[in-house]
Amino acid sequence: MTNNQNLEKEIKILAIESSCDETAAAVVVNGRDVRSNVISSQIDLHTLYGGVVPEIASRKHIEKINQVIEEALAKAEMTLDDIDAIAVTYGPGLVGALLVGVAEAKAISFARNIPLIGVHHIEGHISANYIENKDLEPPFLCLVVSGGHTHLVRVADYGKYEILGKTRDDAAGEAFDKVARAIGLGYPGGPKIEKISHEGNPDAIAFPRAKVADGVYDFSFSGLKSAVLNYLNGAKMKGEEINQANVAASFQKSVTDVLVEHAMHAIDEYQMDKFAIAGGVASNGTLRKAMEEACAKKGVKFYHPSPILCTDNAAMIGAAGYYDYLAGKRAGLDLNAVPNLKLGE
Ligand code: KG4
Ligand code: ZN
Fold this sequence. Notes:
This protein is of the alpha/beta class. The protein has two domains: 4-129 and 310-326, Nucleotidyltransferase, domain 5 (2-Layer Sandwich); 139-304, Nucleotidyltransferase, domain 5 (2-Layer Sandwich). 45% of the residues lie in helices and 19% in strands. It is built from twelve helices and ten strands. It has helices at residues 3-7, 43-47, 54-75, 95-112, 121-132, 172-182, 189-197, 222-237, 244-270, 285-298, 307-310, 315-326, and strands at residues 12-17, 22-29, 33-41, 85-91, 116-120, 140-145, 150-157, 160-166, 274-278, 301-303. A five-stranded mixed β-sheet has the order 3-2-1-4-5, with helices on both faces. Helix 3 (54-75) runs parallel beside helix 4, helix 7 packs across helix 9 and helix 9 packs parallel to helix 10 (285-298). The longest helix is centred in the C-terminal third of the chain and has 27 residues, at 244-270. The site of zinc ion (ZN) has 5 residues, from helix 5.
């Protein structure tokens, strides 16, 4: 390290994420240096019910949040005295779940007089790409595919987003979860579909590649989900045995094809030379491989976070929060949870 760098102040951010079913806290220095990333997942609890139960999620967040924050600080070998700002997800997500993180962040901010930053959850997912790719800077195109969102976003600059397309109905991850349930794989569906698809033939069943007539970059996955359900019903009526692996592989291929096609179209039209994926579904190996190959053909640089940074976590909120901090964005103690918060608000 040069003397010059030594003189530069390090900005240490404590980040908190509680928008869905993970209670998470992290310490991130200067946006890209993750000192700790603690995630307490409630997934086993919600598996009993086949999906996330909002009331249970809120209650579990309350139980876990202090412990998770303490662990994040301890792992980073810091105390609140070292922290320059607190970044917290304030939307979108489940209102009761979000409120736990927001109330906690506000309490620490007030008690210790530490600046507070409200972060958009999707902005966090996109920013997860900065952590392991130190060279990645806007502008770039990002596809956010999670259980709640399917957004194709042009990242014009830090904190400046243009949504080119989004889903009109189910999110990509939601489709994975619903199809997994229909073929008896259980929750959460994404990883289970991916696993069993390795034993199946992706060309076995011709499921539709849904197009949205009046929005080239918009997605629709409910038609695909219905096509899978119709296929399953049809087979049942005819007394045919269902090959789970073939259904999973063919469904996964159909989702992947649509995502790749939309992304490549946008890359061409907006002349982007960098493309990133983010969100829970971005850990899907088939999707990654297809995106990687398509980008390589165009000479476009492809970025993706490690699986642990694809799923909900607080390190990504710390990364996004850092650039908001640099831009001077601060939240007041009236910060509230906004369950349907739009990107760019
Ligand atoms: O980003 P995330 O953890 O939470 C939300 O913000 O929604 O995404 C969770 C979603 C779930 O729908 C899950 O089934 C899906 O991501 N997912 C996957 C894979 N791993 C998680 N989908 C496909 N393949 C995977 N390997
Ligand atoms: Zn998420």
